[in-house]
Amino acid sequence: MGKPNEHTRRVMVGDVPLGGGAPVVVQSMLNAPADDAAANLAQIEELAAAGCEIVRMAIPHRRDIDVFAQVCSASPLPVVADIHFDAHIAVEAARRGAAKLRINPGNIGGLDKTRAVLDAAGEAGIPIRIGVNAGSLDGALAARDDLTLPQKLARSAADYVRFCEDEGFRDLVVSAKAHDVMTTVRTYRLLAEELPHVPLHIGVTEAGTAFQGAIKSACGLGILLEEGIGDTLRISLTDDPVQEIRACWTLLASLDLRRRAPELVSCPTCGRCQVDLIGLAREVEDRIAHLDKPLKVAVMGCVVNGPGEAADADIGVACGAGSGVVFVQGTVVRKVGETAIADALMEEIGRL
Ligand code: SF4
């Protein structure tokens, strides 16, 4: 399903293929304290259960490297080391189990330091993401008034990629993010033109809290993915990272690129509805979010559109006055009271 980008060069992040026609990879970033291995591993378990395929972990200080190494050795998912300002941490992370490094060459201490990081990644056999950000552009480039911000971001990323490739390091992924949606879209379009062979990590950075961030990300990343741009995505939310994964999968399913969890079809309710449909839909959404079954589940408020949508879905309910008629693949299987609807739907889902 969908149209993965086949032009980009394939890199491996642990055992996860990225680029070169591989399915678009879903990732997130840990936000547990960097010095707490148990907390980070617990968060990785939650993320993996939600469908996360790669996690990124910040290593703010040299003293955090031991914890990072512990997390890498016990993690069921490949762990990317996120490093700013200190190339020594990046070199150590490569030696201590990172599946990939994320650096911004603009703040890692100069090209010699970048070379040391490339050498360490090359020895470890891991890729590097060059992550350029609107908030941390190189000063000389940022000051140029003959270039737009997307041109500056794309130029900065492309310059670093060429530097790495000239050094003989090609295991690269690139990102160039801004918090503004259309700046992000224009930047990635330029990157896809200038660096058609390099896998792109797409995202709208600092997108905000769950509601705003999901909408901004869906707009920007939806446009890019529909144009065939993007090999991996992160939806950055000021929220639990599990919500980022749910948003990623919802976006990929909406674009028919990949499906994982069931899709919820639910009506907006109106004056005809005689059950607490909003509460029911939220409960069902939460209970199906971790299921690895690409089903369609309909939760409908009344007989106007209810029976049609419920019958069209794999599993559905059309509610009436304090009750619901449950459908399984188009056939009515039972009628239950309002408080038993969610359990009945989950039971029927379990049977499929
Ligand atoms: S299915 Fe019924 S309750 Fe829901 S919005 Fe349509 S008419 Fe209203």
From TrEMBL:
Superkingdom of origin organism: Bacteria
Iron as UniProt keyword: yes
Cofactor: binding comment: Binds 1 [4Fe-4S] cluster.
EC number: 1.17.7.3
TM segment ranges: none
Alphabetical GO biological process terms: isopentenyl diphosphate biosynthetic process, methylerythritol 4-phosphate pathway; terpenoid biosynthetic process
Residues of the IspG TIM-barrel domain: 8-249
Keyword annotations from UniProtKB, A to Z: 4Fe-4S, Iron, Iron-sulfur, Isoprene biosynthesis, Metal-binding, Oxidoreductase
One Pfam short name: GcpE
Ranges of residues in domain IspG C-terminal: 263-349
Coiled coil: none
Annotated positions binding [4Fe-4S] cluster: C267, C270, C302, E309
Catalyzed reaction equations: (2E)-4-hydroxy-3-methylbut-2-enyl diphosphate + oxidized [flavodoxin] + H2O + 2 H(+) = 2-C-methyl-D-erythritol 2,4-cyclic diphosphate + reduced [flavodoxin]
Record-level Gene Ontology MF annotations: 4 iron, 4 sulfur cluster binding; 4-hydroxy-3-methylbut-2-en-1-yl diphosphate synthase activity (ferredoxin); 4-hydroxy-3-methylbut-2-enyl-diphosphate synthase activity (flavodoxin); iron ion binding
Family that this chain belongs to: Belongs to the IspG family.
Function (record text): Converts 2C-methyl-D-erythritol 2,4-cyclodiphosphate (ME-2,4cPP) into 1-hydroxy-2-methyl-2-(E)-butenyl 4-diphosphate.
Name this polypeptide is given: 4-hydroxy-3-methylbut-2-en-1-yl diphosphate synthase (flavodoxin)
Organism per entry: Enteroscipio rubneri
Encoding gene (name): ispG
